[in-house]
Amino acid sequence: MLSYILRRTLAMLPVMGIVVVFVFLLVRIAPGDPAAIIAGDYATPDTIQKIRVGLGLDKPIHVQFRIYLASLARGDLGRSLHSGLPVSQLILQRVEPTVALALSTLAFAVLLAVPLGILAAWKAGSLIDRAVMVFAVGGFSIPIFWLGFLLIYVFSIRLDLLPVQGYVSFREGLIPFARHLVLPTVALGMVYMALLARITRASVLEVLQSDYIRTAYAKGARPPAVLFAHALKNAAVPVVTTIGVGFALLIGGVVITESVFALPGLGRLTVDAVLQRDYSIIQGVTLIFALVYAVVNLVVDLSYTLFDPRIRY
Amino acid sequence: MPEPSPELAFIHYDALTPGQKARRFARRNPTMIAGGLLLLLMGMLAIGAPVLHTVDPVDMNPIERLKPPGAGHWFGTDMYGRDSYSRVIYGARISLVVGLVVALVTSVIGLAIGLVSGFVRRLDNVLMRAMDGIMALPDLLLAISFVALTKASVRNVIIALVIPQTPRVVRLVRSIVLTLREQPFIEAAQAMGARLPRLLLRHLLPNTLAALIVQGTYVMASAVLIEAGLSFLGAGTPPEIPSWGNIMAEARSFVRVAFWLLLFPGLFLATTVLSINLVGDGLRDLLDPRLARRMR
Question: Closest approach of chain B CAs to the CA of A142, in angstroms?
């Protein structure tokens, strides 16, 4: 097991390497000159040149890459082109709302979608099954930001039940914290839920048609026992895989959701950086998101042994 | 039109008239037909926008600011007094063009890389690692960074969407080629002296088309959604072009006073994506039921 974790972590390295190269080139091939952006509109060519030298942008590209790698190895993600603050500091300041939103969405989507998918498969062909499938196709087609505004309009403006926008840290009280997260969680969770419900249904349905389930019935097991004791565990692997793969949807959705609900998280940091063309922040955030995505999928791979003892590492 | 009698089901399929075949198809695939009709309607709106609009979509009229939907302005007016209905039907153009072009370009590039990667072992590793690298980045993030680096234009949005979507097509095509290459007919073709281009184009390519078409519809659906998302964030289609994402981005500060400005473009967007997904699901069941497993 331990050797497998090591091997998988090592296997992550080439992919992360490609990501690093990609992120590095992103800025170098960009048409805009970062030095000119920092210098501002009224800078003389002289000042721009000084800044360029200060950033090391006058050096040959392979030297620049070596410097970039060396600073990454020290955990240094560079400084914001606009505020001059270290990117790692900016990211740390914005982590909390994003992590809170991602975890609540994950919990919301998994806790609702998996039972719904199981129910749909168990009652295949019934009205419940059709309703779940309609929801799955529909949920996949609704734009997050539109759903977000619909929710805001109905629950915050018309019914006045929940706050319109903003974020309150859990340190300032759990109830206001939760109230601010409800709508963003639902808006962001819908796509993920639709995806998971669909895969869960398909996976459970397939297992329920297998021979050993027929055997279980034949030896007289009761239907609930067949479902819970025999079927579900074997249906879990594709579902868990989808939780991992779908995490990319969640990350992309976080950027949009935070913008709609004015949550001061990493997504907002990204959008602001994009609008200001603050390349070093874009680089840093992209790397972090890619790393998180890779780690999530590593954890997913490792969790397979929990569900299927035949999978050994 | 009279319903076909139950006995008809026992007649051999080939004996049916084309009209009967079509009706049977519609009866068995109601959601796909509904999706297809909706998509057709959107397409007609997009093409007919110059005829169908009631007021010039960029015409500002300060006196008519923020008017709710009514007889003169079916979807109301925005903060500059522009007619929302006219803007929304013009928005269909951007969404559908971006969706179609991205689906086509992604399919062609993905097909080419997938065929080569699946069949030419020496290139496989390099190509697939590059695809892994792209797939390691969430698609919206990749698209947003690309647009941030270049000038906002429809062309750049299309490129920004093609890059993250391509690996999905490559993986699908490659997985099909990997199973095909072990089959006797490929061996036979090789034994007869077929060269690589002929093998790829005559023998492997036709067998990937069904899956490719289905995947293409899904690529189109996500392209339409992500384009709207990018425009909504201000990193997509230039703001002077009325696209659904842009209209909603401008309207976002007016949720309280003019909700219709957000309601209609979103409704059209969701309907378009839904109809593409329905057509895709229908095609998948139709072309190859076994395909359903291969597609994520």
Answer: 5
Task: Tell if the CB–CB gap between B144 and A260 is shorter than 8 Å.
Answer: no
Q: What is the DSSP string of B159-194?
A: HHHHHHHHHHHHHHHHHHHHHHTTSHHHHHHHHTT-
In sequence order, the β-bridge partners of residue B77 are B83
DSSP letter (8 states) at residue B74: T
Least confident of B23-32, B46-55, B204-213: B46-55
Neighbours of A237 (CB within 10 A): 17
Q: Give pLDDT tens digits for B62-72.
A: 677 767 777 76
Test mutation, A146, A260, A263, A270, chain B, max B CBs within 10 A: A146
Distances (CA, A) of B284 to A246, A282, B110, B212, B287: 21, 38, 19, 10, 5
Please tell me the predicted confidence (pLDDT) of residue B81.
Answer: 66
Tell me the pLDDT tens digit for each residue of A101-122.
999 999 999 999 999 999 888 8
- Residue A248, SS3 per DSSP: helix
CA-based nearest residue in chain A for residue B272 = A141
pLDDT tens digits along A155-184: 888 887 878 788 878 788 788 788 888 899
A19, A259, A282 member nearest B148 (Cβ): A282
Q: Do A255 and B144 touch (CB under 8 A)?
A: yes
pLDDT digits (tens, 9 = 90+) for B96-144: 999 999 999 999 999 999 988 888 888 888 888 888 888 888 888 888 8
Q: Note which residues in 255-294 of chain B have CB less than 8 A from chain A.
A: 255-256, 259, 262-263, 266, 269-270, 273-274, 277-278, 281, 292
What pLDDT sits at residue B294?
43
Q: What is the mean pLDDT of residues B268-278?
A: 91
C-alpha separations of B26 from A258, B31, B33, B279 in Å: 42, 9, 6, 12
Report yes or no: B288 and B176 within 8 Å, Cβ to Cβ. Answer: no
Looking at the partner chain, which of B130, B138, B234 has a beta carbon nearest the beta carbon of A275?
B234
Q: Which residue, B274, B273, B267, is CA-closest to B88? A: B267
Nearest residue on chain B to A199, judged by CA atoms? Answer: B296
Q: Is the pLDDT of residue A133 over 60?
A: yes
- Residue B293's pLDDT is what? 47
Exposure string of B198-237, with b = 16+ CB inside 10 Å and e = fewer, is: ebbeebbbeebebbbebbbbbbbbbbbbbbbbbbbbbbbb
User: Quick check: B248 and A245 CB within 8 A?
Assistant: no
Report the residue from A18, A253, A274 with minimal CB separation from B235: A274
In this complex, do B252 and A260 lie within 8 Å of one another by their Cβ atoms? yes
The pLDDT value recorded for residue B109 is: 95
Answer whether A153's CB lies under 8 Å from A161's CB: no
pTM: 0.84
Contact call for B136 and A19, based on CB within 8 A: yes
CB contact under 8 A, B266 and A143: yes
Length of chain A: 313
Average predicted confidence (pLDDT) for chain B: 81
Tell if the CB–CB gap between B270 and A275 is shorter than 8 Å. Answer: no
ipTM summary value? 0.82
